[in-house]
Amino acid sequence: MKTRKGFASDNNSGIHPDILRALSSVNEGHVPAYGNDPYTLRAREKLQEHFGADADVYFVFNGTGANVLALRTMADTWQSILCSEYSHIYEDECGAPEKVTGCKLVPLRTQHGKFRPEQIAEHLVWLDDEHRVQPCVVSITQTTEFGTVYSVEEIRAITDFCHNNGLLVHMDGARIANAAAALDLPFRAFTRDAGVDVVSFGGTKNGMLMGEAVIFFDKELSKRAKYYRKQNMQLNSKMRFVAAQFEAYLSDDLWKKNAAHSNRMARLLHESVKGIPGVEVVHPVEANGIFAVIPREITPSLQEQYSFYVFNEHTNMVRWMCSFDTTEEDIAAFAEALKKALKNS
After folding, report:
1. In angstroms, rounded to a whole number, what is the distance separating the alpha carbons of residues 175 and 183?
2. Whole-structure pTM value
3. Which structural domains are found in the chain, ordered by start?
4. How far is C-alpha 140 from the chain's CA centre?
5. CA–CA separation, 259 and 7 (whole Å)
6. Which residues of the chain are under the pLDDT cut of 50?
7. Distance in angstroms (rounded) separating the CA atoms of residues 81 and 209
8. Gap between the Cα atoms of 225 and 219, Å rounded
9. Alpha-carbon distance 154 to 294, whole Å?
C-alpha cells in the first residue's frame, strides 16, 4: 500500500534504509539481554564520542520515556520543573512527567517557543518555604515546539542563570539533530559545553524506528537512573535492536545528512509559500518545521490531499513538517495544491 507523503509529522515517515539494514544485521543468534550485549556497548561508545567518554547513556523506548526518566532522576516529588508553555512535557505527554515524577510542571511564557532567564527569575520566589513546591529543574526544548533553534549563547545564558540559582537544566532533544544541523555545530557544543546537565536524545523523528537515549554528564545525577528506568517500564530486554539503530544513525554522519535534508526541505517549502496571498508564516523557519496561518475554509480540502495538523484552532495556525524522505517534488506539488485551494476559496 503506497500513500501520499504529508506534512503532519516527521514521525509519519518510514525508517531510513541504513537503519533497516542495521536491524536486520543483528537479528541472528543469541546475545545477553537488557543491554549487556556488544551492540549496546558500541552504541554507547558512539554517543560518548559526541558527548564525552564519561557521559552516562541509558536507552529507552520513546521520547516521553526519555523525558520522564531524565526528570525523575533530576527532581524530587516536592520540587517543580519549569518549562515552555508549549513544551512537549507540558502539552503532549498526557501528564506522564507529573504523574511519574510527582513534580509540578510550571509553564514559562515564550516568544517563538523560546524563553529567557527573566522568565525563570519570576518563579524564584518563596524559596525554602515548606508550603510551596521548590524549583529544581528547567527544561528547554531544542529545537523548540515552533521549529526555532536556541543559539549557544541563549542556552549558556539560561544554564548560567540556573546554576547560579541552584537549578539543573534538562534538554528535550527530540529533534536535536535538526538543531545541530541548523547551527552547524557538534551536539556537545550546545549541550554539555553550554552547561546542560541532562539530555533526552531523539532519533525517531529523523529516520530511526524507535528508541531514544538519556545522557547524563554528572554521575551523581545518574546513579539512580537504572532503577527508575526499570520501574518506569523503559528497560528493553532486546536492547540490541535499539542499539543497532543508534550505531548506524551515528555512523558516517547519517543523523546529520537526514537532518540537513529535512531542514533544507523546510526552507524550500518556506520559499515556495511565503509570497502566496493568504499565507502568513508566523515563526522563523530555522529547522524542519513551518508554522503558518491560512484561511480556515481551505483547510479541510487541503488536508484531504496532504496530511497536516492545525496547531491553533482560534487562529488556524497550521504546522507543516518535513522529513528525511521529503522530496523537492513533494514540496512543489503541495505548494501548487495550496495555491489551487486558495484560488478556489
Report:
1. 13
2. 0.96
3. 17-249 (3.40.640.10), 254-344 (3.90.1150.10)
4. 10
5. 15
6. 1
7. 29
8. 10
9. 31
